[in-house]
Amino acid sequence: MFKSPDGSQVLARFEPLLSSLDRDDLARSPDVICGVLADGLTIGYANAAWFEFGRRNGATRVWGPGDRLLDAISDPIQGFYAEKLGRVLADRQPWEHDYECSSAEVHREFRLRALVLGESAGLLLVHALRVERPHADPGHPLVASLYRSDAGLITQCAYCRRVRRVATQSWDWVPALVAQPADNPSHGLCEACSAYYFGPNV
């Protein structure tokens, strides 16, 4: 793997797929960008913004070149991304998808654009920030007993990061569990995200 002074990282076998692109533009872009190989959707490239976004948001691990992209995605939406990215490779047509990726303090929405590289040998995934603002909802205080199931699990939406209240099955915004996730969280999809992001027209 090659680590560039500009903060980007690339696998040697991914280098040829970047030959038609302006590497300086990718490296300097404020968009969070990675490239993946068609074989297993292994991350082959990541720009500086990719690593900076992970660090700023307190990620326990920042995934990078050599890691499998789908391993970084929660179970409830892994299949969705595997199917969509596989279709992009097969059809050689770009795909766009909006999603939420908020922190405890800031509401953020991104637009993902997946572009084919080479003869479907890989993809460039560009995550462009569309919305960034303080949360309108101050949220609920963390009362673990409201959210922890009899099995000891706390279920958090894989998209909006709201937490399911056990007694009512409603979903609450609990900033403390976004800033410091539960030790053994379970991931699901709240009804709002399921309908909005994964409805019949997605």
In words, what does this structure look like?
It contains 6 helices and 11 strands. It has about 200 residues and is of the alpha+beta class. The chain folds into 2 domains: about 130 residues, Beta-Lactamase, CATH 3.30.450; about 55 residues, no CATH class. The strands form 3 sheets. A 7-stranded antiparallel sheet has the order 1-2-4-3-7-6-5. A two-stranded parallel ribbon has the order 8-11. The longest helix has 17 residues. It starts with a strand and ends with a helix. The mean pLDDT is about 90.
Shape estimate = elongated
Number of strands: 11
Strand percent estimate: 25-35%
How are the strands of the largest sheet arranged? 1-2-4-3-7-6-5
Q: Can you identify the CATH superfamily of the largest domain?
A: PAS domain
Write down the CATH class of the largest domain. Answer: Alpha Beta
Please tag this protein with its features.
202 residues, alpha+beta, Beta-Lactamase, 2 domains, two-stranded parallel sheet, 6 helices
Structure summary:
This protein is of the alpha+beta class. Helices cover 24% and strands 28% of the residues.
Q: Would you spell out the secondary-structure blueprint of this structure?
A:
Layout (H helix, E strand, L loop, with lengths): L1 E2 L5 E2 L12 H6 L3 E6 L5 E4 L1 H9 L18 H17 L3 E6 L5 E12 L4 E13 L9 H4 L6 E4 L5 E2 L6 E2 L2 H5 L5 E4 L2 H8 L4
Parallel strand pairs: 8-11
Antiparallel strand pairs: 1-2, 2-4, 3-4, 3-7, 5-6, 6-7, 9-10
